[in-house]
Design brief:
Elements: H1 8-22, E1 50-57, E2 67-69, H2 72-82, E3 109-111, H3 116-123, E4 127-134, H4 142-147, H5 159-168, H6 178-184, E5 197-199, E6 215-218, E7 221-222, H7 226-229, H8 236-247, H9 253-278, H10 291-304, H11 306-309, E8 313-320, H12 329-353, E9 360-366, E10 385-391, E11 399-400, E12 423-424, H13 425-436, H14 443-446
Parallel strand pairs: 1-8, 1-9, 4-11, 4-12, 5-6, 5-8
Antiparallel strand pairs: 2-3, 4-10, 6-7, 9-10
Helix pairs in contact: 3-12, 10-12
Length: 462
């Protein structure tokens, strides 16, 4: 059947997905995937501003060398299990953590030596650690896992699928994520819906909603449609002709939709460029050689331009790769953690400079954790992991959740130190969504498994 003959609701969905998904792979040169559709949404943002920033660590971050057992007994077990990839204990003294609520059994933990910037934020109460969080369908015990008597996340330990389950609650092929579904609730409260969900690192299902479509930016600002914003082949007439060609109304519905999206992206480019040009320069220093820092810098600038962009609620996505360290973990992982710590530290400082720290919350995520056991020079795919939550409203200096035992094939893992999560992504997401203003009745529409958990607020916020 020709799409023009489809029932109206189906045709609308076809158009939505065509602009949101079908064009995404070819969108960069012409900024075709920068639009949000702006249909009515169920949630309003209120009169205040809040932003949520996801820092996704692609490849599966190694939890064992990010948050390291430090008390003598636990460290001895850790060092025995990890062998050559263990961080020497004498390197951990400067980043040993003293939480505001002590861990049970006199346990102590330290951040990786490279994460001193985050240690400072932990000590000041602006950053906390969510322990052993991962993808789950419902609360699951080790006995239930072994018996396979409860539903489990699909395709565990698979990069693509677990990235998608983390971001979307569904395996690879999902078309919406919980960041985008959260954005759906705030479209009607934002003056310009295009800027509700902003991705500074390419394309991610986390940012796709039913109505909200991720607006992609480069680290220097709007993705420029250069062929129509400056002379084409030295000719302004050529540029004007191209602009007419790709924005003029058309009789064919597919051409009409394509040109409508292009026109909207050109308008968004103008708005973003103008807003960023009007923003006073930030004095906070972001390392120009740190790709994650550069992404977070443009996020900070866009947050600083929130009034010009006409938004009250925003969801942002940034990312960094390189964490799939089956080999060379002792050589490569420290540099990655340095980049994460410095980038997040600079970003928090920028939110303080902008006077908006209490309204911005940043959290880390990754495909999965890794094995506590070493494979010789690295670690293999795991499940649960530890993650950070940072912001001026965060009740930090704390660990949330259950600290796993430092054992292999013990009570907390499914083999080789693969942690069985004791906190679900849905619970983490629900806590963040509630802080953003998503109502309790709307939470299941954002995080479909949240009804399986009695605890929906993990206590991150003051």
């Amino acid at each position: 059947m020709h799409p023009s003959k489809l029932p109206q609701l189906q045709r609308r969905e076809f158009l939505r997905r065509a602009s949101a998904l079908g064009l995404a792979g070819t969108a960069a040169p012409f900024a075709l995937n920068l639009a949000a559709l702006g249909e009515a949404a169920a949630q309003t943002a209120g009169n205040d501003y809040k932003a949520l920033v996801c820092v996704f660590l692609y490849g599966g971050n190694d939890y064992g060398n990010t948050l390291v057992p430090y008390d003598a007994t636990s460290y001895a077990s850790y060092a025995t299990i990890r062998g050559a990839i263990a961080t020497p204990r004498d390197q951990l003294a400067a980043t040993a953590l003293t939480p505001r609520i002590a861990l049970p059994d006199a346990r102590q933990m330290a951040l990786a030596p490279q994460m001193g910037r985050l240690k400072t934020l932990f000590d000041s109460g602006r950053l906390g650690v969510q322990l052993n969080v991962g993808t789950l369908i419902q609360p699951t015990t080790l006995a239930q896992y072994k018996a396979q008597s409860v539903p489990l996340p699909p395709k565990l330990f698979s990069h693509n699928d677990q990235q998608s389950v983390w971001q979307a609650s569904s395996p690879e092929g999902a078309v919406t994520g919980w960041g985008g579904r959260m954005g759906d609730r705030f479209l009607s409260g934002n003056g310009n819906t295009t800027f509700t969900c902003i991705n500074a690192s390419g394309n991610a299902v986390f940012m796709a909603g039913q109505q909200a479509v991720q607006y992609q930016v480069a680290t220097n600002g709007a993705v420029a449609v250069n062929a129509v914003t400056k002379p084409l082949y030295g000719s302004q007439q050529c540029a004007d002709a191209l602009r007419t060609l790709i924005t003029a109304p058309r009789s064919h519905w597919m051409e009409q939709e394509l040109n409508r999206v292009v026109s909207r992206s050109l308008s968004a480019q103008t708005i973003v460029s103008s807003a960023l040009n009007a923003l006073p320069p930030l004095t906070t220093v972001f390392d120009p050689n740190n790709g994650l820092a550069q992404q977070l810098q443009i996020v900070a600038k866009l947050i600083g331009s929130r009034a010009s962009l006409g938004v009250k609620r925003q969801v942002f996505f940034v990312s960094m790769g390189g964490f799939d360290l089956h080999d060379f973990l002792p050589n490569q992982h420290p540099g990655l953690l340095t980049a994460v710590s410095e980038a997040m530290g600079a970003f928090y400082d920028a939110t303080v400079e902008l006077g908006i720290a209490d309204a911005v919350t940043t959290f880390t995520a990754s495909d999965f954790g890794r094995t506590l056991s070493s494979n010789g020079d690295g670690s293999d795919h795991g499940w649960g992991s530890h993650h950070f939550v940072m912001g001026g409203a965060v009740k930090g200096g704390r660990f949330w959740g259950q600290l796993p035992s430092v054992t292999v094939n013990g009570p907390d893992d499914v083999g080789q130190g693969r942690l069985l999560p004791t906190t679900s992504v849905d619970q983490l997401g629900a806590t963040l969504a509630s802080w953003m203003g998503v109502s309790a009745t709307d939470l299941p529409g954002v995080l479909p498994q949240i009804g399986n958990y009695s605890v929906k607020d993990l206590g991150y916020f003051v």
